């Protein structure tokens, strides 16, 4: 259900149920969460890419799987055991996570697409807050991620009508940072990820932590949090390398930290 490959410090995790557009079952969600946790402590990995095999990114919860459950499904328990730890792991990971959206991202798959530190879309990517088509509410973080890019009213509209967002519109709306041609998508994502992997990763991990904090805090609290995290950045060998390289008029070598 999950393919894993590391190349030049970039770990690519591919959701692999292509015949169902990578709709998620428990096994897929658990495997993905475990692989992300393992990546955090793996010195060979500096950046993680999450993408989909085949023509889809992720069609959300496998609806066949939901229907197969005995009796009435306990959605709250299900979310607490599967999607919540997954999204928390992505947002808390001390390494950058790129969501590389190769095709349709629907339902909880849309939430997953939005959860990356950087979101790279193929021109074939689409995002659909599809939940209302089956009279559910957006979960796995969509109610948190989407209004932060488009505002609550536009988010509500996208959710109410399960409107399909194209790659061009996703870029305008701030749902992704780059759009690449479908033919070169995998190579473009790898090249982007390798560029990110060459950046100072301790500083980026602290930047991620600061952004996570600031998204739910007051300005005063964010300013104070920055001052604490800046100390951690400044005490790291990476910072000394950056300053030394500047003085010596050469490119810093952050890859060794
Ligand atoms: C699928 C799925 C799918 C199984 C396509 N499952 N097979 C929910 C419940 C409980 C608690 C936790 O939280 C959640 C969160 C959620 O994610 S709810 C939302 C669940 N997802 C959906 O409702 C999406 C359903 N799928 C679609 O609307 C369409 O398939 C999209 C718009 C994603 C893609 O449309 P098309 O490109 O036209 O592809 P398709 O519909 O022909 O799908 C291709 C195949 O994939 C097809 O199988 P088949 O055997 O006919 O070729 C679909 O049945 C299968 N598939 N999504 N979620």
UniProtKB/TrEMBL annotation:
<dbReference type="GO" id="GO:0016853">
    <property type="term" value="F:isomerase activity"/>
</dbReference>
<dbReference type="InterPro" id="IPR001753">
    <property type="entry name" value="Enoyl-CoA_hydra/iso"/>
</dbReference>
<dbReference type="InterPro" id="IPR014748">
    <property type="entry name" value="Enoyl-CoA_hydra_C"/>
</dbReference>
<dbReference type="Pfam" id="PF00378">
    <property type="entry name" value="ECH_1"/>
</dbReference>
<dbReference type="InterPro" id="IPR029045">
    <property type="entry name" value="ClpP/crotonase-like_dom_sf"/>
</dbReference>
<comment type="similarity">
    <text>Belongs to the enoyl-CoA hydratase/isomerase family.</text>
</comment>
<keyword id="KW-0413">Isomerase</keyword>
<protein>
    <submittedName>
        <fullName>2-(1,2-epoxy-1,2-dihydrophenyl)acetyl-CoA isomerase</fullName>
    </submittedName>
</protein>
């Amino acid at each position: 259900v999950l393919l894993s490959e590391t190349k030049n410090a970039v770990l690519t995790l591919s959701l692999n149920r292509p015949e169902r557009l990578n709709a998620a079952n428990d096994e897929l969600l658990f495997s993905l969460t475990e692989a992300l946790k393992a990546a955090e402590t793996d010195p060979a990995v500096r950046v993680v890419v999450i993408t989909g095999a085949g023509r889809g990114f992720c069609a959300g919860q496998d609806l066949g799987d939901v229907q197969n459950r005995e009796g009435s499904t306990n959605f709250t328990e299900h979310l607490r055991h599967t999607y919540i730890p997954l999204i928390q792991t992505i947002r808390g990971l001390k390494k950058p996570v790129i969501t590389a959206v190769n095709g349709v991202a629907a339902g909880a798959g849309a939430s997953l697409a939005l959860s990356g530190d950087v979101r790279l879309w193929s021109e074939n990517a689409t995002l659909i807050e599809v939940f209302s088509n089956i009279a559910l509410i957006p979960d796995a973080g969509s109610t948190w991620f989407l209004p932060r890019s488009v505002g609550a009213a536009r988010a509500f509209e996208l959710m109410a009508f399960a409107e399909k967002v194209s790659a061009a519109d996703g870029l305008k709306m701030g749902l992704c940072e780059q759009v690449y041609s479908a033919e070169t998508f995998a190579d473009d994502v790898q090249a982007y990820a390798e560029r990110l992997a060459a950046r100072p990763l301790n500083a980026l991990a602290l930047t991620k932590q600061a952004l996570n904090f600031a998204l739910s805090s007051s300005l005063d609290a964010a300013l104070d949090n920055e001052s604490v995290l800046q100390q951690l950045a400044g005490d790291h060998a990476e910072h000394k390398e950056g300053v030394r390289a500047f003085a010596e008029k050469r490119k810093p070598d952050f890859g060794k930290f």
